[in-house]
Amino acid sequence: MAEAWVLATSVAGLPGLVQVASGAGPVTVVAVGQRALADAASAAAGAVRVLWVETSADVPAEAVAGGLADLAQQDPPRLVLATAAPAARALLGAVAARVGAAVLGGVREVRAEGAALVVERVALDGAVLETVRTAAPLAGVVAAGAGEMSGPGAPGTSGTPVPGVPVDRVELAPADLRVVERRDAAGGGGVTDADRVVSVGRGVRARADLDLVGQLTAALGAELACSMPVADDLGWVPKERYVGRSGQQISPRLYLALGISGMPQHMEGVRGARVVAAVNSDPQAPIFRHADYGVVGDLYEVVPALVAALRS
Amino acid sequence: MRVVAVYSWARDVTGAVVLADGTVDWRRGRMAPGEDDHAAVAVAQALAGDAGAVVGLTVGDADPSWALARGVGEALRVTDVPPFADEAATAAALAAGVRHLAGDAPVDVVVIGDAEEHPGVGVTLAAQLGLPVLAGVVAAAADAGRVEVTRRVDGVDERVSAPVPVVLVVAAQAAETKAPGMKELLAARKRAVSTVGAAELGIDLADAVTTEARRRPELTGAELFTGDPTDAARQLLAALRSEGVL
Hints:
heterodimer; A: alpha/beta; 9-stranded mixed β-sheet; B: 6 helices; 15 strands
């Protein structure tokens, strides 16, 4: 039995994936996409082999899911991991079903104990950490940020070039899936590359109150963003500034959420933020589970206090 | 098109309370609609159009009327399916339900919510059915015997065309805005729901995953500042300065 497979359709999260997978043994990265992805996989610390399936620009990675399952069946891996990226998950499901693997999400660590695999995973929207055991094989979707270390020792961040591992090209016949159109999502009007972002939700009661928020963005040198209802239902903020699963996905150093409850759809847009702070009158608001800092209070009192403190 | 909309196939995570010792207390332990299920039903209805049909599929102790109140004409519930830790087992129960429905008439599309908590169910369901799958879908339209889906991946808007039959894993863009009223809810409860036992479908329901321990994460949420707004604002700014983000 082969040891561990990592299924990659983009470079995002790849070093962390390889690191988590290495807990079950030597890691083969299966890279489905363009040459640059195969090269990145080859340089990922911890990988011992790369299988590269080239796909053309008008064929989505999902098209080779069946072929990949056939390949996995020849020498079934005991562990298969992917990120939550839609295409990577499609490949994971195909391999899992073919080799009869158990399937788990939220995977943070894997270790082999004899024939079994022991997994540390996050569940219930981050509210609990579980230790689970399964007989191999296992297919896992890793939790966001799993396996990523900070500092100079982190895979893929070192200034020292890592000698690449061999890339073996594999031809797989694609299924009849076609990319009809692919274009960059609308620009975020400065939100996407801002260092600091102040974002408003339904806790703001009137459009005119955005003037108050404007004083805070000016004092912080921040861009204004919002949750989806503020752009979509109310139209108070241009749509290209709304942050969330279907809106902008941003990575500012500071994300300050005002009157935003913190629904999962919204929080997906700020996963890359370094520090998340929130102001909300409801101490039970979900956003406080995701934020680093929070002020429980009326934003109509807290925002002027923030502006005054920043100006003094 | 004949579309199967899968819903209420897991418990609602907001119905669980994690106690200090890590024990999970399910205050609401029934299978319940997931946060993406309303979007999955909407995509199913868009694909079926006026000429087609949407059939609901749910499992375990879920209330099948949830989809019926949202305009779905009929539903099948596969009974005696418990919540599984192993998402492949959940997918197997759902796949058996889809096969059962396909015994009546061909199924063109299967739609299921793209639940963050259970990211492997939809894609594994597709593979167990031997069908292609597209996940992260936000909208879909029927187009000359095929299906064209829209999604956003890594800041890129994508339209992908797929043949039928196909499985679409649908991600909601927001919480449901137009919940059905009392009239629809009452009417839905009167509609016929078929049920079939897992044993009748010939599926062996076993969980391949054993949970050995649970604990609360060390950091649970934000460092909170409360009380006087001026003090709280100053404390927040001090914290942000110490993080080096101001």
